[in-house]
Structures
1.
Amino acid sequence: MASKYGEIVEESLNALLNDTSFLPNFSGDERKNAFTSLESILSTPNQIQKSFLRVPLENGKILRIPAFRVQHNNAVGPYKGGIRFHETVEEDEVINLATLMTLKNALHDVPFGGGKGGVVINPREFSEKELHTISKTYVQNFSDILGPDKDIPAPDVGTGEREMDWMMGEFKNIHPGRPYRGSFTGKSQMNGGSLGRREATGKGVYFTLRYMIHNFINENEGWFKENENRFAKTALNHTKRELTIGIQGFGNVGSVAALESYQCNYLNTKVVAVSDRNVTLYNGDGLDIEALVDFTSKHNGDLPTTKEALSQNGIKADIQDRADVLYLDTDVLILAALEDQIHEDNVDKVKARMIVEGANGPITLGADRKLSDEGVLVIPDILANAGGVIVSYFEWLQGRETQFYSEEEVSTMLFKKMKETMDEIFPQFFSDPFPLRQNCYIHTVMKLSDIMYRHGKLY
Ligand code: NAD
């Protein structure tokens, strides 16, 4: 069975089959063969490695923990993608996420391929010493396939700069005398990490929303007036009133996107709801995001869950169920938690007019089709959450140059790169019938196909 992104690749290739300006040198049976090659290359990974990490625990027991590294495609450059520590990690999920990385990097002209890793643990159940051993053992077990010119991991859910520092340290031990700074990104600044890496994904997520609304409405007013759909009506109103935003997930991505909204001068937005693994907090007048960020920084990343905690910290909000954020009547919903949060069984309850995918794959394909039919604008993961990998690329470059950029330089370079992609994609979106997600995929599949054709791989 094709993976989720494999299916999307197939749809994009079908849309391109009769476009003779795409792969113009192929016709007839040769063209069919080229498309079959493309589909099989892009919908299957080059390599899946699974290993059991042998980890002695502090209580004397020994665990064998399943771990994965999937290398999807390296036509554009070394494999690149995060390592996730989460109890629900499984092989198919890692394959999907690795495929998305190939497509995302190509879309944004980042010279990397796609990879992803995962370890099946709930990191909250392990001590720091045990997490250190898990991180080191991961590198030992996959060391042959990792490296600055082979495959460069980064943080993902459940991992951060601490784990990347440990992993890079172990890589250096295993490969003495070899270049090591570019072996992992998302490291601490002391260890060669880039300024602005932690904030990059959340900033990029908000930037895509801001750029779509602030820069494209006036130029495309005709389109918005013709399209009497949920998104168009909301977007046209943005200068007359504040746009309300709900955010699922208040971790690295969600909390930074919330802060960007709180501090943004370009768009009139207010965050009325945020959620995490425990609760949704709602305030129709707008939440005090700075106070919430301050609270989470002191409470292991968690939002306040009781009235007492809210009042002690001067935060005004109603406490609701954690899933409620998905169904609130907001203009914008930013999904910044996990996969498959909006699916066939709950999509009918979603009222937001625009959705920005900060997380990878937070909407299932079926739910996505339904949202698109109803005229909800979805700014897809491949476009919206690329900030992290873009700044990871800057970190890798800085490691090579042993020259470091200021935070302002990193932000400027990040926004420039994302703007270049959006300037290619958005005008096309306003002039053809495809949803934004499909537009992005058609675009990236065309780029990858051209590269593979030039590599002589389409036969
Ligand atoms: P994180 O671990 O920092 O934060 C995750 C947040 O989601 C936390 O607030 C957590 O409480 C919440 N959460 C967990 N389970 C939940 C549930 N069942 N319902 C509601 N909320 C829940 O992770 P992050 O780095 O912010 O990543 C979030 C998403 O963004 C992931 O899908 C990740 O793959 C994706 N992403 C992250 C980056 C990055 O640079 N961090 C880059 C691209 C994509």
Note: The mean pLDDT is 93.
2.
Amino acid sequence: MTHPCGQPPHPPRATWQHGGVTAATHSSLFPQVPESADAVLEGLDPEQRQVATALHGPVCVLAGAGTGKTRAITHRIAYGVRAGILQPASVLAVTFTNRAAGEMRGRLRQLGAAGVQARTFHSAALRQLQYFWPKAVGGELPRLLERKIQLVAEAAARCRIRLDRNELRDVTGEIEWAKVTQTVPADYPAAVAKSLRDAPRDPAEISQVYGMYEQLKRDRSVIDFEDVLLLTVGILQDRHDIAEHVRRQYQHFVVDEYQDVSPLQQRLLDLWLGDRENLCVVGDASQTIYSFTGATPDHLLNFRTRHPGATVVKLVRDYRSTPQVVHLANGLLGQARGRAAEHRLELISQRDPGPEPAHVEYADEPAEAEGTARRIRELIAAGVPAGEIAVLYRINAQSEVYEQALADAGVPYQLRGAERFFERQEVREAGIALRGAARAGGNDALLDDVEDLPAQVRAVLSTKGWTTEPPAGSGAVRDRWESLAALVRLAEDFVRARPQATLADLVAELDERAAAQHAPTVQGVTLASLHSAKGLEWDAVFLVGLTEGMMPITYAKTDEQVEEERRLLYVGVTRARLHLSLSWALSRAPGGRASRRPTRFLNGIRPGSAAAGPRAAGGGGGVERGAGRRKRRGPVLCRVCGKSLTDAGEMKLMRCEDCPSDMDEALYERLREWRSVQAKELGQPAYCVFTDKTLMAIAEAVPGDETELAGISGVGGRKLDRFGADVLAICAGEEPDEGDEDD
Ligand code: ATP
Ligand code: MG
């Protein structure tokens, strides 16, 4: 029943529904294409197969992170096409980003099912709009506004409302939100109150600007990004002939990341479907992270109510992450509350055990960045490709210190979804202002009587929007403030390191940093915000800056907003295949007051923390067990000089690096030899067995029994079970039992 090319022949058509991919050449380009439709199913587990073979009627896949949702729907399409059940051109797969769409097309080609449309809602709608506009409205589709901000500025001016540049960006954001939630200008004030958003200006004013903006667009005959969806919806609603045309073309719909679908996207999907039900949606309510843009998991969770005959499949096997990572992820969700949390799915890892997730506390932010860069170098030295490592943070302004630390460590990196710090407009403007002030020397009126360098920097940057207190709310004003605040901190740190430094020295330093970070990079470590990491995966993931205020972010005030932050952290954790590190810094700058606290979301999960809620059962992790045995109160003190320790490595050693060691050198050597044998057997880098610091601590403490061994930092519950007997034997001067095949 399968056509030799994997699909039945159809005449070439140069129309809106084709992406220009030809199916006929796949077998020569991709020699490893599965031989048959059935062979496509071979890479799937029974539940995934159920998804792939349920080709008719509504299908809803509710499944956690890494369970193969994206894989299942890709194979589903490929199976249907290869089995001759689905016509490639009749399938529309909708993904969250253009990049995800591109990846899906690539995977489909590899499975012998090219020619299927995989697009975002936006790009699919734009294509339809371009094609049908002449018929529906006449003439060419109006020009698409590249940047709506200028028109918003003009609209504000016409309404005699003065907005500065940042307010302008935030008001623009509000207009976008109103449009995807299908809120007309007159309804905006009520809608904003209902949604508990922090409006950047008086909602009545925003409503006025929004109305004028719409008017100006009509006058100039231009459309914006959101109009693409709104107009497509409008045409499909009003013109039954056109709706029929589209429905004849597309018979099958597949939607990935369905938990984050906006009301407007859902409306479009309903119109595409008409009264048919050939719709397959996949999603994970626990990964809803775009509620702030109007998205809601309700469509996913109510799917069966809307489609009573739906096949609902749950996937629970996590193929992405180790039991250790999965255990932590389950623990996080175990404490979640709210509607999405009621539908949480406990993940079960299918992978071999890996290293315990690291919980690392640093004294200050630069130490956190340096420590992270150091660990990344170790991973790369141990064979993990740089492209398989990611550092994920809450807001883009956090990237600078990591860009710098990685540049210092000679590690290539790439930023996802954000401009590099020194390329951001506000940072460039701040640089120009600082350079101007430095050039003016003492002749700048602004800096009269201001001697101290950080104070000078604050004075200059206050002309660019810096204030002592952060602005209320999120959005562009906040982002800009964060960038400027990062520059102020940089100046404070700089003068601490070089007390005699002048403004000119600081400007030179900024130039040097900018030059280092502008160096072209190839494949490197990914620096990305948690939001932009959605759907992706890496071997090693570093979640950094996990302090209260950043995670959850200060402006998350309502319970729902805090829950969305928790889900965001869950998304971050579940990006890791093997290595996961969670870190935070107790103070911002070196020598600063240790006033910060690690995120509440890690309570009960982080070693030494009290549980905050019910613990998840199952999983393979020894995190909590290890944490329980190592429970500590108060600071860790150096056992030689008594100073309190903040460096993670020193905490592991339980003494300052410089304090004299009473280590048994010969024992240390024997432990290292044993470790390299273990590492080889496990196929993992040596430090995954025990780090040097832990081995040193063992060789210093020479534990005589399990309890003493368990008291050493770095010896978690799993390691104790796995290696405890060997280590104690070596400490007792015996040979470890060679024939012991544990685990
Ligand atoms: P997310 O919720 O993060 O989007 P997902 O459910 O879409 O995750 P995928 O990205 O499809 O998960 O799969 C996660 C990883 O597991 C991928 O590397 C995928 O290739 C692998 N995987 C999924 N299913 C299987 C399977 N049956 N056998 C082997 N590997 C699998
Ligand atoms: Mg996915």
Note: The first strand starts at residue 59 and ends at 63.
